Amino acid sequence: MRFLKNKLAVVTVIISFALIITVAFTAKGRTRPTAFESIIGSAINPVQKVFFKTGEFFKNTFSTLFELKNMKKENEALKEENTKLREENRKLYQMALENKRLSELLEFKESNPQYKYIGAGITGKDPGNWFDIFTIDKGTKSGIEVNDSVITGQGLVGRVIEVSPNYSKVMAIIDERSSISIIVNRTRDTGIVSGNVNSELIAVMPLESDIIKGDDIITSDFSTFHKGLYIGKVESVEKQERKLQKLVKIKTSVDFKRLEEVFVIKNANALD
User: How many Cβ atoms are within 10 Å of 195's Cβ, its own excluded?
Assistant: First the structure.
């Protein structure tokens, strides 16, 4: 079988060569092929078609493979560029958030020159709700003491409840055990605000107190905290006639889910 295939290939080549020679010497000045040329042409034309189609197939196949290879390279390059751009965007976003926090703190510092500020990072939190109790990376070596107020540029965060040389524990104002004496900034009415199981702030105010939704709440003179620290805005007011009081829900100005760094504040002469 193999011999026959080889023989057929040899015959095909010989016929093709004969056809080329014949055409070369006889085609000049003629417009129609001879009977012999027609016979030879009819015999070899199918073979030529096979060779042509095979050549075109390989040409198109290699061309497609080459294009696919280039597309793969371009796709990988685009993926790499996209990854770099996303990382750059993430960094820029973090820088924008940090700049916002620092701007808020700077504004607070300019409005409250009576304080000194100790910056601290949050290094951990106790298991449980949100950031009710958390640890910061500064302690007695930095001048921090129990009951020092802890803030961000947005407002009051909590107070120091435990101190070691290199770290301290802070109780957030949303903790159930927290209790703060407050003032309604608009009317100067006073009350007591505490955290609850839902990590919200609830204030109990006298029934006759003038307090409405949207009022700003700050710390009072009678609080463990420094006076005048911003806590948040009144979200709702509920009258309790039988108890002769109002139950006030306060939305904190600080986002306790996203705390990263805080500032411990002390009186201006406390660190001298």
Answer: 23
pLDDT at 148: 93
- Number of helical (H) and strand (E) elements in the chain, helices listed first: 2, 12
Over residues 16-25, the mean pLDDT reads 53
Query: Lowest mean pLDDT: which of 50-54, 185-189, 257-261?
Result: 50-54
Q: Facing residues of 193 across strands?
A: 180, 203
Cα–Cα separations (whole angstroms), residue 45 to 23, 42, 50, 170: 14, 5, 9, 94
Which tokens is 234 given?
């009144």
Residue 228, SS3 per DSSP: coil
Q: What is the pLDDT of residues 76-115, one digit of tens each?
A: 888 777 877 777 777 776 677 677 777 777 777 777 788 8
If we measure between CA atoms, which residue out of 163, 157, 139, 249 comes closest to residue 201?
249
Domain boundaries, the chain: 34-111, 116-271
For 192, phi then psi, to 5°, come to -125, 135
Give the pLDDT confidence of 123-148 residue by residue, as tens digits.
Answer: 887 665 545 889 999 999 999 999 99
Alpha carbon distance 129, 200 (integer Å): 11
Q: 116-271 in CATH: which number?
A: 2.40.10.340
- Rounded CA-CA distance 141/120 in Å is 13
Residue type, 231: I
Residue pair 157/254 in contact (Cβ under 8 Å)? The answer is yes
Cα gap 133→126, rounded to integer Å: 6
